[in-house]
Amino acid sequence: MSRSPWRFLRIAVGVAVLGAVLWQTGSGPFVDGLRSLDVWTLALGAALAVPATVACAWRWHLVARGLGVGVDMGSAVASCYRAQFLNLTLTGGILGDVHRGVRHGREAGDAGRGLRAVMWERVAGQVVLIVIAMVVLLLLPSPVRTSVPAVLGVLAAGFVAAALVVRHVPPTDPTSSVPRMLRAVRDDLRCGLMVRRAWPGVVLASTVAVGFHLSTYLVAARAVGVTTSPMTLLPVALLVLLAAGLPVNIAGWGPREGMAAWSFGAAGLGVDQGVATAVAYAAIVLVANLPGAVVLVASGRRGDVRSVEPSPSGPPRIAEGGRAHG
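Below the sequence we write its predicted structure tokens.
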């Protein structure tokens, strides 16, 4: 599928889901979600966003260092704020990260490797989120609890299959790009994620980020008047965060509100309260990432991503065909 139809499909899915939610609930929950916010709630959301963003920046720092396109922490934090702001204001929810990867890659002298560093750190974050979600959804009552074992089986089978494919890469065929791609994936995983100096920090950073995102969602729920216990809200919030990570949205809107409506309704918390909570969460997150707009304006005048030279022990630079240089 070419880029243009895929972009149209992403927007169409987001519009369809958001339209279905509006058709079912009307505009009332959307208005209620915004009216529930006050200065103190927004300030708390902004405070929670700081450690979450720093954790994401650290994860990027670790992965990029392993791939030989290191980024210092100060620049990583600023770039993550900018990327998050763009993700929240552009269709698809990933364009900010694409911009972050391409910009840093060009600064580091390898646009492809810079983009892959961002891709892998985002993948690592989603994997940790999925693992946490599966554990919580398996242990705590939720609308999908009975389906979790089957989902875990499918995920485990998919992971094993992918690992076997990547591990046993066929000999390079000059007429096919598939072996080269698989070798690049294997090399990236070995150097960027699976090395001892990277993976513990990547897991820790991802766990911290998930924890603060969940805390922000609980703040939004309390703001709209949801009084149920955190143990009841936690599985529902994780389902919403999983849906929010799907790249089929309109500046973050669509699957997040759809999942909130369904999961809150299925948990007996009320469809309207679910939508209002999702709207409040969206507004809190947008305000919390307004520093990214400042970084965006400032970076338009000067480059703000300073690359760190890879250490002599860093990974070799892989050219097309899998051969190393230098």
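The radius of gyration is 21 Å.
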